[in-house]
């Protein structure tokens, strides 16, 4: 009888250990703000087009050319959609792209409490609502790529795994420093006395956010961007996800970068080559 409340408490602790939600106002620059429906209430999203599209952000408008690519982006545990970068659209200027980044429940002005389980559930709503908007405007949906950073990789893999159970419309993934969340928590806990006491909490991770588990169900092509000096999610832990991944993949090693490091000129040729490979795989 005590097992259920104990597990609820462990899930609560895991959410507190992993998630870093903020609700303060963040300047979103030139991005377009949109709210999409979810089972928890409105989800705040921000997006941009890398070409002139007079009807961008308006599902009822029939002006403008349809995009070749719809890019759905999932930021990391402390990320916000307002700060989303243009990556990788600046490297593919010949591809008309619409990019949308979400704020998960509890982040920004998105409704709901920030928990790992709710993020997984709301991510499916974000994906389906995005598809519905493009079907309403263009009747067809463009090629879809999912882009995840850190914890957002676990979210993207969950969405891809669920989408494949029906008629998957996802053609590619870009995953930077994907974490096996439970193993990362245990890895960090080793730095502290009595760190093993946190292991039962880490083991409470929901399967939906267990990237090793979901990666085994995803067979679409993926680029893995791996920061070689990552101290938060060491490459050895990232490798566990790559080993489980069922689809074709290409690894780009980002030498000299820690978890949040910024790519510079030395990294760009390998990234461009990987994007060309993913475009070929996606027939984009």
Could you describe the 3D structure shown?
The chain is α/β, with parallel strands linked by helices. The protein has one domain (5-214): Alpha/Beta hydrolase fold, catalytic domain (Rossmann fold, 3-Layer(aba) Sandwich). Helices cover 33% and strands 18% of the residues. It contains eight helices and eight strands, in the order H-E-E-E-E-H-E-H-E-H-H-H-E-H-E-H. Strands 1-2-4-3-5-6-7-8 form an eight-stranded mixed β-sheet, with helices on both faces. Strand 5, helix 3 and strand 6 form a beta-alpha-beta unit. The chain is globular, with a radius of gyration of 19 Å. The chain starts with a helix and ends with a helix. The mean pLDDT is 92. Residues 98-183 form the AB hydrolase-1 domain. This is AB hydrolase-1 domain-containing protein. It comes from Rhodopirellula maiorica SM1. InterPro entries: AB_hydrolase_1, AB_hydrolase_fold.
What's the helix and strand layout?
Layout: H1 3-18, E1 32-36, E2 43-49, E3 69-74, E4 97-102, H2 116-138, E5 143-149, H3 151-163, E6 170-176, H4 181-189, H5 199-202, H6 211-215, E7 222-227, H7 235-244, E8 249-254, H8 268-282
Pfam families: Abhydrolase_1 (PF00561)
InterPro entries: AB_hydrolase_1, AB_hydrolase_fold
Domain AB hydrolase-1: 98-183
Radius of gyration over alpha carbons?
A: 19 Å
Question: Structural class from helices and strands?
Answer: alpha/beta
The total tally of domains equals 1
- Indicate the CATH topology: Rossmann fold
CATH architecture: 3-Layer(aba) Sandwich
Secondary-structure element order, N to C: HEEEEHEHEHHHEHEH
Work out the oligomeric state of the chains in this entry. single chain
* Strand adjacency order, main sheet: 1-2-4-3-5-6-7-8
Share of helical residues: 25-40%
Question: What name goes with the CATH superfamily?
Answer: Alpha/Beta hydrolase fold, catalytic domain
What distance separates the N and C termini? 54 Å
Extract low-pLDDT stretches.
none
| Secondary structure tally, helices | 8
Principal-axes shape call? globular
Q: How many beta strands in the DSSP annotation?
A: 8
Strand content: 15-25%
CATH class: Alpha Beta
Pfam families: Abhydrolase_1
Domain AB hydrolase-1: 98-183
InterPro entries: AB_hydrolase_1 (IPR000073), AB_hydrolase_fold (IPR029058)
Protein name: AB hydrolase-1 domain-containing protein
